[in-house]
Design goal:
Elements: H1 5-28, H2 32-40, H3 44-58, E1 68-73, E2 82-88, E3 92-98, E4 107-115, E5 118-119, E6 126-127, E7 134-138, E8 143-151, E9 158-167, E10 181-183, E11 188-189, E12 194-195, E13 199-202, E14 208-210, E15 215-223, E16 227-233, E17 240-249, E18 256-257, E19 262-266, E20 278-285, E21 288-290, H4 293-296, E22 312-315, E23 320-323, E24 332-336, E25 341-348, E26 351-356, E27 360-365, E28 369-371
Antiparallel strand pairs: 1-9, 2-8, 3-7, 3-9, 4-5, 4-6, 4-8, 10-13, 11-12, 13-20, 14-19, 15-16, 15-18, 16-17, 17-19, 17-20, 20-21, 22-25, 22-28, 23-24, 25-26, 26-27
């Protein structure tokens, strides 16, 4: 049998180069975007087109409400880059997940800060790592952010992107959730003399109150307005969590507790005497009390399904409205006439994310669009 040593040598070289690249990536930790750029940099025309499309998408004015699932596809001949403005609160963790296998296609996501509808810097605040087709981002400041997402374009693959948030702390009353919060931050107290510096979570007397974080019990006592209360410190320079009006306390000062440990039980001690049993839950940092809602509010997870999106569409009616978001509540950008050709970049619920003439982007209801075959 004749052995082709040239083919074997090329294969060994390719495998060796790939191993070196993988080792280098482990040390330098490039972002998903950097890996994709590295793979297209040798094609100057394609690279220039990608850079133009990325900048255009990054500076669009489209908005996205959370949670949501976006259905899209990679294209072997083009880049489909999705970019949206989203609102996030301190205390939330942004989750962006795809159903793309990490060894199949590289996915990239960048997050930028926004101030007055302008990007704060040219560099993203955070990006996903290479070979990780997801991103977790703990929000450090309440406000608007811009997310930019795309995949490699070396093959055609249908995929979806789930975007949602989760609280960074565990809900502090066992078995309870958002509907059990009946008094919020800022509510008037003492006839207007003060405002509520926390949230009240209502539950039956004796319902377990649990540690929302790992930490040390700084104080466990029966005193003042809070009655039977616990102050839980989350790390040396972390936040302090305040649990008040307990019926009884199960822990003691100086105790280290883990996430989910029972601290005490719901009651109505202190100035809650005579009221329905509930937990007053507050969070404090070095500046004082902060709104705890986003830190514990449970989020709805997006439901994904199998859905393929066609690329080339055409408008159906005499008037076809284009909006900045996926719903009629969003501002209208403009109106297209019948038989206007458009490119489909993605789909959210019953709305297509479309592009017209390579530069105008917006959302159009699916009833206004048909596939242009």
């Amino acid at each position: 049998m004749k052995i082709n040593f040239k083919i074997i040598l090329v294969s060994l070289c390719f495998a060796s180069c790939k191993q070196v690249q993988n080792l280098s990536d482990k040390l330098t930790k490039p972002s998903g975007k950097q890996v994709i750029e590295r793979n297209v940099k040798e094609d100057e025309i394609f690279l220039k087109k990608y850079e133009d499309v990325y900048e255009q998408a990054k500076n669009n004015n489209l908005e996205l409400a959370l949670p949501n699932v976006i259905y899209t596809k990679s294209d072997s001949l083009d880049f489909s880059i999705l970019s949206y403005k989203i609102f996030l609160e301190k205390g939330e963790r942004l989750k962006i997940e795809t159903n793309i296998e990490t060894d199949s296609l590289q996915f990239a996501v960048d997050i930028y800060g926004i101030l007055n509808d302008t990007l704060i810097s040219k560099r993203p605040i955070v990006s996903n790592e290479a070979n990780l087709n997801n991103l977790n981002f703990e929000v450090f400041k309440t406000g608007y952010y811009k997310i930019v997402m795309f995949s490699e374009s070396n093959k055609k693959v249908d995929f979806n992107i789930g975007i949602y948030t989760e609280p960074v702390f565990l809900f502090p009353v066992a078995g309870k959730g958002n509907k059990d919060i009946q008094s919020y931050w800022g509510a008037v107290r003492s006839g207007g003399k003060r405002k509520h510096e926390g949230i009240d979570i209502f539950a039956k007397r004796g319902t377990p109150v649990i540690a929302s974080v790992d930490g040390f019990v700084a104080t466990a006592k029966n005193s003042g307005l809070g009655g039977k209360q616990i102050w839980l410190k989350s790390g040396l320079f972390g936040k302090t969590l305040y649990y008040a009006h307990l019926d009884s306390i199960k822990t003691r000062s100086g105790t280290y507790v883990k996430l989910g440990d029972t601290l005490g039980f719901v009651g109505n001690t202190g100035n809650a005497k005579g009221a329905s049993p509930h937990l007053h839950f507050g969070i404090y940092n070095s500046s004082g009390a902060i709104n705890p809602l986003a830190f514990v509010k449970k989020s709805d997870l997006p439901n994904s399904k199998e859905e393929k999106v066609f690329k080339n569409g055409i408008t159906k009616l005499a008037k076809n409205e284009l909006r900045i978001g996926s719903g009629v509540k969003y501002k209208k950008i403009e109106t297209f006439t019948e038989n206007t050709p458009i490119t489909i970049l993605g789909k959210i619920d019953n709305w297509f994310h479309v592009q017209y003439a390579d530069h105008i982007e917006g959302f159009m209801h699916e009833s206004l669009v048909v596939e242009n075959i």
